[in-house]
What does this fold into?
Amino acid sequence: MTQTVVFDVYGTLFDVQSVQNQCEIIFPDKGSEISQVWREKQLQYMFLHELMGHDVQFDDITERTLTYAVNSVGEDLTEKSRRKLMAGYQQLTLYDETQFVLSYLREKGYQLAVFSNGTDNMLRGLLNESGIHGDLDAVLSVDLAGHFKPTVSSYQVVTDQLNISAEEVLFVSSNGWDIAGAKNAGFQAAWINRSNGPEEVLGLSPDYEGENLTVLKSIL
Amino acid sequence: MTQTVVFDVYGTLFDVQSVQNQCEIIFPDKGSEISQVWREKQLQYMFLHELMGHDVQFDDITERTLTYAVNSVGEDLTEKSRRKLMAGYQQLTLYDETQFVLSYLREKGYQLAVFSNGTDNMLRGLLNESGIHGDLDAVLSVDLAGHFKPTVSSYQVVTDQLNISAEEVLFVSSNGWDIAGAKNAGFQAAWINRSNGPEEVLGLSPDYEGENLTVLKSIL
It folds into this structure.
């Protein structure tokens, strides 16, 4: 029985498209490719560092993979552009429906939290800027585990910090690998399939699926 | 002091392009995208399953990610096409210089081995088919560790099985993440940068770099 709804942040509550637009302004005609490589490498580096047993953080990885992404299209990254694009990550825009859905769930009495691979600092900066911090009962970073999602020990941050059991959690993410990780940790899971992509074949299917967060209204 | 040269297999000794050609025949105009998604997802699923603590193997992952890749371009995979493309993975072509470089190193007296995330069965099938099995002193699969590269424990298969120290190994791979993993495990490493891509920024640089395997002639 769901009592707590826990949201992933990047791509789930916030649209990372605004960073792509900034990439495009700085690197005309290459913004889309840069931001795509950036995101892919950002994920891959989290996984690789975790597998190699390194203790590194999301902001460090985000900065290094930006360099890689810019280099991958044959461009160089100036210090000024680096600062601008990294700052863009702190000023992402909310998806249209995010505020409405959080308010709806709050009124229905659910406990609400976010849980992200982002650092605690990055998350609090972003959430304060956006104005939804007040709607959340908890802001949880993998910093508390010292391990990135989708390791089992990372998701235990949620149950440990909120003092609840895994079955009480409905985890919401637009990332298929994050849904698999949440199911692997014993949570219920709703996949926000914004791009209408195929389901991952990791053997851990979501309990629910919708094209945006309003699907939660029909679930809860 | 290098005494043993250990090669990654897929993309390092063997060209995976031939599978792309088969994809193109079955799915005209979509072969390139399918094979690219297939390879990316194959890597990602190895990392994800390892992070989630699952015991799965390369052949199972290769088959599931083929389904995902075909679905990702809006196509369905028939049983016949599935069998054909999976069989293609057992009949990859060697890069032009592979045979020559292996013979050269053998004559120079180096111990030669392969070490791959592929299963022992897949590796032996592929190597027998290609005719280079006889040039190798050892065929090593991560099966022996129960963990995929780039975990530290996976690379220990090499030193354990060959009864050598990490410093005696020159590890050769076209995959940047594999180079980082090898360096992380204490090996010397030569990166075969076939696509002239940017270096990974994982904090673990290769000792050597070349555009194909012939660079080993100038190193050893």
Notes: Chain A has two domains: 4-14+93-219, 16-88. Residues 145 and 153 of chain A are 7 Å apart (CA to CA).
